[in-house]
Amino acid sequence: MSSAKSRALQLAIAALLFSGLVMCSFYLPVRWVYLGSEILIAILFASSLNLLMGYSGLLSFGHAAYYALGAYTSGLLLVRLGWSMELAMLAGPVVAAVGAFVFGLFIMRGNRGGEHATFLMLTLAFSQLVFAVIYKWYDVTRGDDGVSGINTAKWLADPRRYFMFVVVVVGLCLWLLYRIKNSPFGVTLQAIRDNAQRCEFNGVNIQRYQLAAFVIAGLFAGVAGTLYAFFSGTISPQLADWTASARPFLANTMGGVQSFWGPVVGVLTLEIIDSQVGRLTQYSLIAVGMLAIFVGMALPRGIVGAFQDWREKRTAADGSAGP
User: Fold this and answer.
1) Residue 38 near residue 197 (C-beta atoms within 8 A)
2) Over 80: is that where the pLDDT of 136 sits?
3) Is a pLDDT exceeding 80 seen at residue 40?
4) Structural domain tally of the chain?
5) Which of 209, 245, 206 is nearest to 225 (CA)?
6) pLDDT per position as a tens digit, 41-64
7) Where is 147: in which H helix or E strand?
8) Which structural domain, as residue segments, surrounds residue 170?
9) Which are the contacts of 298, defined by CB distance < 8 A and separation ≥ 6?
10) Is the residue at 245 inside a domain?
11) Is there a domain that residue 266 lies in?
12) Distance between CA atoms of 130 and 146, rounded to whole angstroms?
């Protein structure tokens, strides 16, 4: 299948899923609507990290910092300063992007050698810094008590309306991420990932491109955090903890980091394990760990990567068996 046909098929599937989600919101029980909103927000969060892991080759274990910055900025502006929901929602991702830019300057400077372990530890350190500030600055953030009363405007008060709002926002963000990843900028990021030395030799400013990717990823993580704040109505410092970064990291690893649909498949896989295994036993985390080990050993390219390999082998076999 040609690249143009493959992209057209992906866009058609995405459009079908988008329209299907909107239609289902009118008929599904409210609990499924809540679950749908939560899953879509998690998909956007994981997809924003995929821009770093899969397309830039940057292993970040502190992506939750920008998720939390978006959530806390929008929540505090609404609750503390009385901003409207619309303005607070716009401010959250902007602050997350600014935070990603400031942290990214230090992280890129400290990772001049381009080592994955160094970058990973630096991102983790800055994420824990955000967690510590949120946890300790009680007068503003209420510390471990969290911030509550983050209510949506009246036109989004109904869960079904908010679900449709999440569908539209997440759909738009995923489309933008898709365009970014397939743009000359995204192709350059992939070239840096594959051979940074050759790109530098050709005059590409590697750190500038990586910093831009870091800020863009932080922006979309901030959008996810903002959506979660108004979805949940309550936020806590745990949004910035390292465990919050582990979830999208694991979703990308299981789904496939070098695929646009990898984080989507990874999030859905984790959700199925949590919901189905969690109903039968309290050891759902063990099931997640065992599946992660299996994917790491048997499917190094993740679930989507394994499916792509199987499809390519089948196409090659069909071609060789032809007349």
Assistant:
1) no
2) yes
3) yes
4) 1
5) 245
6) 999 999 999 999 888 888 888 999
7) strand 147-148
8) 3-239
9) none
10) no
11) no
12) 14
